[in-house]
């Protein structure tokens, strides 16, 4: 188990200059930039989180989840590596790291969690990057539609999948000859608010 954790985050402040700055930027630290790490549920004996907010001439705004999309992702990736180095099941490792004061919604049993979520996550039966093709992505889209996800939500997920596959070519030399598949997109009907805005701009 880790005895210390030092985490450095670099990124522009999203809230600086907005109406939320007074509430959520304290001592120059944007709370949305460190969430996902600073508020981790893991009980780490010694933890230090640093953040640097460079100021560049590119305006930024938030999206859903904000900091957790990159901070918690990085932390969880490292937790996976630590579990692998310790030769422990990744869920058992995480449960051992959790703050004992936390109230869990279900029994903290690794096998029970695996049994419940493996059919959804595909854990232990991963798909290799170079095996991903457009037909498999279409199957994923159909599954998400059966789950009741909206077209706009599925498109956001497809954006992440597409970006991840594109980056894989850059980071893994064995994929240099591999071409990432074409990512389908679902047609999104305009919301009532968008229709009103369009109508107003046209003078209708």
Brief descriptors of the model:
mainly alpha; two-stranded parallel ribbon; 204 residues; Aldehyde Oxidoreductase, domain 4; 8 helices; 2 domains; two-stranded antiparallel sheet; single chain
Description:
By secondary structure, the chain is mostly helical. The protein folds into two domains: 4-125, Aldehyde oxidase/xanthine dehydrogenase, molybdopterin binding domain (Aldehyde Oxidoreductase, domain 4); 127-204, no CATH class. It is built from eight helices and four strands; from the N terminus they run βαββαβαααααα. The protein has helices spanning 21-24, 31-34, 71-85, 90-97, 110-121, 134-146, 151-171, 192-201, and strands spanning 4-10, 25-26, 29-30, 46-52. The strands form two sheets. The chain has a two-stranded parallel sheet. Strands 2-3 form a two-stranded antiparallel sheet.
What is the gist of this entry?
With 204 residues, the chain is mostly helical.
The counted number of beta strands is 4
Strand order of the largest sheet: 1-4
Q: How big is the Rg? A: 21 Å
Helix-strand topology string = EHEEHEHHHHHH
Number of helices: 8
Q: In which range does the helix fraction lie?
A: 40-55%
CATH topology title of the largest domain:
Aldehyde Oxidoreductase, domain 4
| Assigned CATH class of the largest domain | Alpha Beta
Integer average pLDDT? 83
User: Any idea what the shape is?
Assistant: globular
Give a short account of the largest sheet: 2 strands, parallel
Going by CATH, what is the homologous superfamily of the largest domain? Answer: Aldehyde oxidase/xanthine dehydrogenase, molybdopterin binding domain
Distance between the termini: 64 Å
How big a fraction of the residues is strand? 5-15%
- CATH-level-2 architecture of the largest domain: 2-Layer Sandwich
């Amino acid at each position: 188990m880790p005895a210390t954790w030092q985490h450095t985050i670099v990124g522009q402040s999203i809230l600086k200059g907005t109406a939320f700055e007074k509430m959520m930027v304290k001592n120059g630290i944007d709370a949305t930039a460190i969430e996902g790490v600073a508020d981790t549920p893991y009980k780490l004996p010694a933890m230090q989180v640093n953040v640097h907010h460079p100021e560049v001439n590119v305006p930024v705004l938030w999206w859903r989840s904000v900091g957790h999309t990159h901070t918690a992702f990085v932390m969880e990736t490292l937790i996976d590596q630590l579990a692998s180095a310790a030769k422990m099941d990744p869920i058992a490792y995480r449960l051992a790291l959790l703050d004992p004061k936390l109230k869990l919604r279900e029994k903290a049993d690794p096998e029970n969690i695996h049994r419940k979520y493996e059919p959804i996550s595909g854990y232990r039966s991963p798909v290799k990057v170079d095996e991903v093709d457009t037909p498999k992505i279409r199957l994923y889209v159909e599954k998400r539609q059966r789950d009741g996800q909206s077209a706009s939500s599925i498109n956001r997920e497809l954006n992440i999948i597409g970006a991840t596959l594109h980056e894989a070519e850059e980071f893994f030399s064995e994929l240099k000859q591999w071409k990432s598949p074409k990512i389908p997109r679902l047609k999104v009907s305009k919301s009532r608010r968008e229709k009103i805005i369009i109508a107003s701009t046209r003078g209708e």
